[in-house]
Design goal:
Length: about 525
């Protein structure tokens, strides 16, 4: 997650706080770039020292070759370009034991490599109804076909049990008699697996799939006889209602899909797929509720001494800011509550970017859902841990709506803090001379069950959805915005939310323009289905 908001003064340290008897300087051991054979995606998390890798299924995950590795200058590593390593134990990000190596400067830093390798399994045959059912543990597959499909005359249209480079014996495309179970041996990377293929007659020509209900709409799916030319679609209604709502859908290779819209939250419905005058089984589902987030309109604001808080009882509870660090540095809160002409209704939040802050120079105004606890450290990675993002939340909004106004100033320097520039490998030199940017975003995540504090290991967090607004436009009067959420999973339910607003996009890395001011007011969660542009 971009550390956009923490230009917070957590590294404050008066001259003389470092003892003169420290024998060696602190040089952070960092992976600056890396590549491996067969990668489809590679991300370096310098904060947590984790490399997240996605591999093509054409790669033997037990023998992954490092083609390039660039680390901190004048450092040593137990891993090098040309090395071949086994990543099979770390498959699945949060599963298994990741591959560990270390980088040594005057200190030693442990790094982890975690890999995933998606495998697309599919079997389609003549007369297929629905998707094949794979049992990976027992290495078996069940394929359903229409009642009039001759099991002695099956034509295999697509067949993949494992990696795309796998070979099969006997060749499934040459077999037509699937009247009984067939054993196929799959070979790949020196591994052999015996799979059982069981093709069965379906008792139905139309099958209602499992709905995926949200709060005001539901994704519907079904399977029909692919050779039929009859009309296809869905009928749905509230449980107990008399009349059905009809949603037509075009069959694509026997699969039908649709979206039932304008549903009521927390309500039970029933759906059935249809093929002409034939209906699949009725399947009941219940829509989600629409949980709220406290103080979205920022009406609750509390001044404790010089520190502004934005919760009903004060303090850093659901909403937090970097105000405590700013005040510790001897300045007034950079995030304050305003009203009257400075608000849309009631009270609003005003955020300003400061400069001249001891050591870090630049501190952006910010507000976010999470916690804050000042950490004094010369290590910028540790200092950023003053802010912890995320609060419990289990809803699936489709957009964040609200109001903002913004006055950006020109960024005059990228030399905000040399230590941060070295660690984050970016001093934002290309920002100098440009207008500052504000940033408003919302991220929905899933943390491990029972965890109430954000895991330091980001690999344990699943990112469910994200949406953001970035702008350097001068907005002198309040302007309404709608930020649509992009969901990376349409089935997983988040359990934490992070909402952020900051007066400087790169304030979290101590870069921004003094005097940039952002106002926000009347945030709102939208749950309606949004048409894709």
């Amino acid at each position: 997650m971009r550390r956009v908001i923490i230009a917070i003064i957590t590294m404050i340290c008066v001259q003389g706080c470092i003892n003169n008897d420290i024998p060696y300087p602190i040089i952070f051991g960092t992976v600056e770039s890396m590549s491996v054979e067969g990668q489809t995606d590679l991300k370096i998390d310098a904060t947590n020292r984790i490399i997240r890798l996605t591999l093509s299924d054409t790669v033997d995950i037990r023998k992954v070759k490092i083609t390039d590795l660039v680390i901190t200058k004048d450092s040593r590593s137990t891993l090098d370009s040309g090395d071949v390593i086994d990543l099979s134990n770390g498959v699945g990000y949060a599963i298994g034991s990741p591959y560990v190596f270390n980088i040594t400067t005057f200190q030693q830093y442990d790094w982890q490599i975690e890999a995933i390798q998606p495998i697309d399994r599919e079997i389609k045959v003549s007369g297929s109804i629905g998707s094949a059912l794979f049992d990976n543990e027992n290495q078996s597959v069940i394929v359903k076909v229409s009642q009039n499909q001759d099991l002695y005359d099956i034509k295999v249209e697509s067949f993949q049990l494992g990696p795309s480079v796998a070979t099969y014996s006997p060749n499934p495309y040459t077999i037509s008699d699937y009247s009984k179970e067939v054993i196929i041996t799959m070979s790949y990377f020196g591994i052999e697996e015996d799979w059982t293929i069981d093709i069965q007659h379906s008792m139905e020509n139309v099958i209602t799939g499992t709905p995926n209900p949200w709060s005001s709409f539901a994704y519907l799916t079904g399977d029909v006889l692919p050779t039929s030319t009859a009309a296809t679609g869905f009928e749905y209604k509230k449980v107990g209602a008399q009349d059905w709502n009809v949603l037509t859908s075009t069959s694509r290779n026997g699969t039908i899909e649709g979206i039932a819209k304008n549903l009521d939250p927390n309500t039970s419905y029933v759906v059935r797929a249809f093929l002409g005058g034939e209906y699949g089984a009725e399947v009941e589902f219940k829509t989600d509720n629409q949980p709220s987030i406290p103080n979205l309109n920022f009406a609750d604001a509390y001044l404790d001494g010089k520190v502004w808080y934005f919760n009903e009882s004060g303090g850093n509870s659901y909403w937090s800011t970097g105000n405590e660090g700013i005040v510790t540095a001897g300045r007034s809160s950079s995030t304050t509550s305003v009203s009257g002409n400075e608000a849309v209704t009631g009270k609003a939040v005003r955020m300003e970017t400061y400069n001249g802050i001891m050591m870090v120079q630049v501190a952006a105004g910010n507000i976010y859902t999470g916690t804050y606890s000042t950490k004094l450290s010369l290590n910028p990675v540790e200092a950023l841990k003053s802010a912890t993002f995320g609060r419990p939340y289990r809803g699936r909004p489709t957009a964040l709506k609200g109001w903002y106004r913004y006055t950006p100033q020109t960024i005059t320097s990228s030399s905000y803090w040399q230590k941060a520039a070295e660690v984050f490998n970016n001093n934002f030199a290309d920002s100098v001379g440009k207008k500052d940017w504000c940033n408003i975003y919302m991220t929905l995540e899933k943390w491990p069950d029972g965890v109430d504090k954000r895991p330091e290991n980001e690999a344990l967090i699943t990112k469910i959805a994200h949406g953001e607004l970035i702008s350097n436009e001068t907005v002198p009067t309040y302007k309404q915005f709608t930020i649509p959420m992009t969901y990376y999973s349409l089935t997983e339910i988040p359990n934490h939310v992070t909402i952020v607003a900051t007066s400087s996009l790169n304030g979290g890395y101590f870069c921004g323009a003094a005097g940039s001011v952002l106002y926000v007011d009347d945030f709102e969660l939208i749950f309606d289905y949004l048409e894709q542009e």
